Amino acid sequence: MAQTATVYSFEIELAHVDRGVYASLAFRVAQHPSEADDALLARVLAYCFEYTDGLQFSSKGLSEPDEPPLAVRDATGTIETWIEIGVPDADRLHKASKAARRVVVYTHKDPARLLRLLDGERIHRRESLEIYAIDRDLLAAWAARLSRRTSCHLSISDGHVYVVLADTTLTGSVVPLSS
Questions:
Q1: Is 13 helix (H, G, I), strand (E, B) or coil?
Q2: What domains are defined for the chain?
Q3: Which residue has the higher pLDDT, 115 or 59?
């Protein structure tokens, strides 16, 4: 019997000081059976970092090769920003760069490994590719406290992240890398 996705509900008071974005977010995210908690939270954190009108989680699931895990679409449905999580391969990023004006990667894995995998590979508009490394300790600490219904305050300032849960404050960073 095939496993089904687990749905998590998030209520986040977002204060992204760097971008001047302040919002009360309420959304649900489906966790694929093969997806680890840190990967799920990397998607949630990327959603908060990139939050803007038109931002959506993939409706077709994480294993869909033609869809990004997160995307900003315009009113016609055209992908404006393609957001990848983890360690996407060069072919996927090449395709994404042809499909969207902006391509962003948030990695919760070893960032040096990602850069090595992409080194020397052909990627359309490689110079405009944005790559960010998420603090793995932050994700591990948040994953240890993950529940099906999460309510928190999330602040971002100068690349530092503060996640205030009911009983604790978690801190970490999201660092831009050179592709």
A1: strand
A2: 6-177 (3.10.640.10)
A3: 115
